[in-house]
């Protein structure tokens, strides 16, 4: 059993509105799984079903091979997008309370909290009320509460919103660290650069349907267009450009470079290999830049959504 | 996983440690006592006021009937002319002048009694004067027909019906008054309690929504546990406050009355006035004895146990309804439309209690309403002093608890669905739809 979480053709209706339509995902153990989709696609509904906040109308969800049941609450840590804490409660008391709700004993919770508070250097917040903290500070507390009971599955919905770059990095490192320690992470976000950085699997949900899923690299391979970004230097720019244009499909390109070169995106047909292109180019001009264009997560996202 | 004790503990301690809660707990009895003290002081001031009423009686019939009391002095102005008498009364700043002009016949007497005063006289004083004059005239009329004073006195009788049930249990009118007092105050206490603390539970249920912690909590505990915990925790906080109020109020009452020498029991209500009159008629001591036996006659054990169960049951049921309202809305301003349906049965219960139970404690209306869960706590508590079979009490309690559990389930259901509907003001129609999700 390599998948920690498996959702099987899950559907959910709210009245006449279909929030999820036969969505299946499989989250491999130890992966960081990006759950992507435009606003209102149904991501949050799926996450709520995994958290047993709502029940699916059809389909089933299995965690570690077992159908979801109440005890699984301990195995899941959930940081919702709509987040908050009891404002008038003290930080320490609140963390203890929430940790105990997740099934930790009080002493256990206290020890782990001390570890985290020391690690994030926020020990002096223990007796402050949440309303005395800034939004980012409260987010940190919320993060600690989410991971404190060492769940097998962590679900983060937009975990970086509200953090400054330094703290966002800190949290990112913590997430990677937790993965090292064996946790599986489901990660829902709109920030494609963090998907790029963190995720190794993604699923894309659009208008209640899953439209794409798999390993991020596989998907990229699938989406690549055999296009190469090329920077050339030549005394006779116009001639070289015309010759290239005769043989290949050419698009203008922009990238940063030291010289005022010829900058091109060259799309190869299936018969042509990159080496053919490169040898052709070297014979015509001085090659300063030669890179395969790999579609970014953002490109894939936009393209998939547009095509559907 | 049972998180109930944990949730109850948190709800209780957050409420109890809350600053405004602490302040209100200790301030309210102070304010109450201060208020009572002011009223007591004022009414004492009023009682202490000295009045002089001058009397000009040209008939001479009413000679000896006006006896001076602590607060009222009567001056006899017989022999003076009316104009002079008026001038004199004005001059002396007397309370007023009672003027009876000369008449030929006793039948015409009543047209000739007048009272002159600076301000319009108080109702009690007028009634007092009228009673005295009426009594005197009746005696004079009877005497004219040849009846002696002694005969009149002898004709006065006082009837008190001795009540006895078929089982040989004796009771009296005062028994009924005591029963009503017990039942009434129990019902009223519950009513007040629900009004004061119901809102607190509602706010506590909304808390998760306004602080946006709801998804974190609901992914850790079942809504029904959360609801139950909130209702019980907040109720305990309410009971704590109430007990402190009673104790603190009692202590303060004693302190205030000893330090300032104001007898707080002197705040006279019309009922007390009547009681006092009744006491005088019957003899204070006999009255007190009757009172004690009446209390002794009450089914006290039953009463206390029933009070505890019905009080808690009724309070929990209404709390769960308030919780359901809290579950349905996002913020307090949206709660208004749901308040009336909750208060209606409560008000109905008090009305049934006050009007029907007094009239006929075991009649159809009283019996039915003492089973209907929303009215049963108040109505049953009022009925019990009159003797209600145990099976009826048990059945009623069972219905009450059943309804309570159903209401909590209902609230939890609404709560769970309500999460998915952020920011929408719910209508009844939608609530009904939610139940089917």
Automatic annotation (TrEMBL), chain A:
<dbReference type="GO" id="GO:0005524">
    <property type="term" value="F:ATP binding"/>
</dbReference>
<keyword id="KW-0067">ATP-binding</keyword>
<feature type="domain" description="ABC transporter">
    <location>
        <begin position="5"/>
        <end position="232"/>
    </location>
</feature>
<comment type="similarity">
    <text>Belongs to the ABC transporter superfamily.</text>
</comment>
<protein>
    <submittedName>
        <fullName>ATP-binding cassette domain-containing protein</fullName>
    </submittedName>
</protein>
<keyword id="KW-0547">Nucleotide-binding</keyword>
<dbReference type="InterPro" id="IPR003439">
    <property type="entry name" value="ABC_transporter-like_ATP-bd"/>
</dbReference>
<keyword id="KW-0536">Nodulation</keyword>
<dbReference type="InterPro" id="IPR003593">
    <property type="entry name" value="AAA+_ATPase"/>
</dbReference>
<keyword id="KW-0813">Transport</keyword>
<dbReference type="Pfam" id="PF00005">
    <property type="entry name" value="ABC_tran"/>
</dbReference>
<dbReference type="InterPro" id="IPR017871">
    <property type="entry name" value="ABC_transporter-like_CS"/>
</dbReference>
<dbReference type="InterPro" id="IPR025302">
    <property type="entry name" value="DrrA1/2-like_C"/>
</dbReference>
<dbReference type="InterPro" id="IPR050763">
    <property type="entry name" value="ABC_transporter_ATP-binding"/>
</dbReference>
<dbReference type="InterPro" id="IPR027417">
    <property type="entry name" value="P-loop_NTPase"/>
</dbReference>
<dbReference type="Pfam" id="PF13732">
    <property type="entry name" value="DrrA1-3_C"/>
</dbReference>
UniProtKB/TrEMBL annotation, chain B:
<dbReference type="InterPro" id="IPR013525">
    <property type="entry name" value="ABC2_TM"/>
</dbReference>
<keyword id="KW-0472">Membrane</keyword>
<dbReference type="InterPro" id="IPR051449">
    <property type="entry name" value="ABC-2_transporter_component"/>
</dbReference>
<feature type="transmembrane region" description="Helical">
    <location>
        <begin position="21"/>
        <end position="42"/>
    </location>
</feature>
<protein>
    <submittedName>
        <fullName>ABC transporter permease</fullName>
    </submittedName>
</protein>
<feature type="transmembrane region" description="Helical">
    <location>
        <begin position="242"/>
        <end position="265"/>
    </location>
</feature>
<feature type="transmembrane region" description="Helical">
    <location>
        <begin position="338"/>
        <end position="358"/>
    </location>
</feature>
<keyword id="KW-0812">Transmembrane</keyword>
<feature type="transmembrane region" description="Helical">
    <location>
        <begin position="180"/>
        <end position="201"/>
    </location>
</feature>
<feature type="transmembrane region" description="Helical">
    <location>
        <begin position="390"/>
        <end position="412"/>
    </location>
</feature>
<feature type="transmembrane region" description="Helical">
    <location>
        <begin position="365"/>
        <end position="384"/>
    </location>
</feature>
<feature type="transmembrane region" description="Helical">
    <location>
        <begin position="300"/>
        <end position="318"/>
    </location>
</feature>
<dbReference type="Pfam" id="PF12698">
    <property type="entry name" value="ABC2_membrane_3"/>
</dbReference>
<keyword id="KW-1003">Cell membrane</keyword>
<keyword id="KW-1133">Transmembrane helix</keyword>
<feature type="domain" description="ABC-2 type transporter transmembrane">
    <location>
        <begin position="19"/>
        <end position="412"/>
    </location>
</feature>
């Amino acid at each position: 059993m390599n998948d920690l979480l498996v959702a099987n053709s899950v559907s959910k209706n709210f009245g006449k509105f279909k929030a999820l339509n036969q969505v299946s995902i499989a989250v491999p153990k130890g992966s960081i799984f990006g759950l992507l989709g435009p606003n209102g696609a149904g991501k949050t509904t799926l996450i709520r079903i995994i958290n047993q906040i709502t029940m699916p109308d059809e389909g089933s969800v299995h965690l570690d091979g077992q159908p979801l049941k109440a005890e699984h609450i301990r195995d899941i840590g959930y940081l919702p997008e709509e987040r908050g804490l009891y404002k008038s409660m003290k930080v320490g008391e609140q963390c203890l309370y929430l940790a105990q709700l997740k099934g930790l004993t009080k002493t256990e919770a206290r020890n782990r909290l001390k570890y985290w508070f020391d690690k994030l250097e926020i020990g002096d917040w223990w007796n402050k009320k949440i309303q005395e903290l800034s939004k980012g500070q409260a987010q940190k507390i919320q993060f600690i509460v989410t991971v404190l009971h060492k769940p097998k599955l962590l679900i983060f919905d937009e975990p970086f919103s509200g953090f400054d770059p330094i703290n966002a990095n800190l949290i990112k490192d913590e997430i990677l660290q937790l993965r090292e320690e064996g946790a599986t992470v489901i990660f829902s976000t709109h920030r494609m650069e963090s998907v790029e950085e963190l995720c190794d699997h993604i699923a894309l949900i659009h208008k209640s349907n899953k439209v794409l899923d798999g390993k991020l690299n596989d998907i990229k391979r699938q989406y690549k267009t055999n296009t190469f970004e090329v920077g050339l230097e030549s005394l006779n720019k116009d001639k070289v450009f015309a010759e290239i244009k005769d043989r290949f499909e050419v698009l203008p390109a922009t990238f940063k470079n030291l010289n005022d070169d010829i900058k091109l995106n060259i799309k190869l047909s299936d018969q042509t290999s990159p080496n053919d292109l490169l040898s052709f180019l070297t014979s015509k001009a001085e090659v300063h830049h030669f890179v395969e264009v790999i579609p970014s997560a953002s490109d894939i996202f936009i393209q998939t959504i547009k095509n559907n | 996983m049972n998180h109930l004790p944990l949730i109850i503990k948190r709800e209780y301690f957050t409420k109890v440690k809350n600053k405004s809660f602490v302040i209100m707990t200790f301030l309210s009895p102070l304010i109450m006592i201060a208020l009572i003290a002011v009223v007591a002081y004022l009414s004492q001031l009023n009682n202490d006021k000295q009045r002089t009423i001058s009397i000009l009686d040209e008939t001479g019939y009413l000679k000896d009937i006006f006896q001076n009391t602590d607060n009222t002095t009567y001056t006899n102005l017989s022999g003076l002319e009316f104009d002079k008498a008026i001038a004199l009364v004005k001059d002396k700043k007397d309370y007023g002048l009672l003027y009876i002009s000369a008449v030929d016949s006793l039948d015409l007497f009543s047209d000739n009694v007048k009272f002159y005063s600076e301000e319009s006289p108080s109702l009690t004083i007028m009634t007092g004067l009228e009673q005295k004059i009426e009594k005197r005239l009746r005696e004079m009329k009877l005497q004219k027909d040849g009846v002696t004073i002694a005969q009149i006195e002898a004709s006065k009788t006082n009837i008190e019906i001795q009540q006895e049930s078929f089982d040989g249990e004796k009771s009296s009118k005062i028994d009924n008054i005591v029963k009503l007092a017990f039942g009434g105050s129990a019902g009223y206490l519950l009513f007040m309690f629900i009004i004061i603390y119901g809102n607190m539970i509602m706010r506590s249920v909304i808390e998760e929504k306004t602080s946006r912690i709801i998804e974190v909590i609901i992914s850790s505990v079942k809504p029904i546990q959360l609801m139950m915990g909130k209702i019980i925790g907040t109720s305990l906080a309410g009971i704590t406050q109430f007990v402190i109020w009673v104790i603190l109020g009692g202590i303060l009452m004693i302190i205030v009355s000893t330090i300032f020498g104001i007898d707080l029991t002197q705040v006279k209500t019309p009922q007390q006035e009547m009681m006092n009159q009744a006491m005088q008629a019957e003899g204070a001591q006999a009255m007190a004895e009757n009172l004690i036996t009446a209390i002794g006659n009450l089914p006290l054990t039953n009463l206390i146990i029933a009070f505890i169960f019905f009080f808690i049951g009724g309070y929990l049921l209404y709390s769960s309804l308030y919780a359901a309202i809290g579950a349905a809305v996002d913020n307090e301003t949206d709660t208004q439309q749901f308040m009336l349906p909750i208060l209606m049965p409560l008000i109905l219960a008090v009305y049934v209690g006050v009007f029907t139970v007094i009239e006929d404690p075991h009649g159809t209306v009283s019996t039915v309403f003492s089973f209907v869960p929303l009215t049963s706590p108040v109505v049953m508590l009022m009925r019990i002093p009159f003797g209600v079979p145990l099976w009826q009490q048990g059945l009623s309690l069972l219905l009450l608890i059943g309804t309570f559990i159903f209401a909590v389930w209902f609230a939890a259901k609404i709560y769970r669905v309500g999460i998915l509907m952020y920011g929408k003001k719910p209508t009844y129609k939608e609530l009904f739809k939610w139940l089917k999700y």
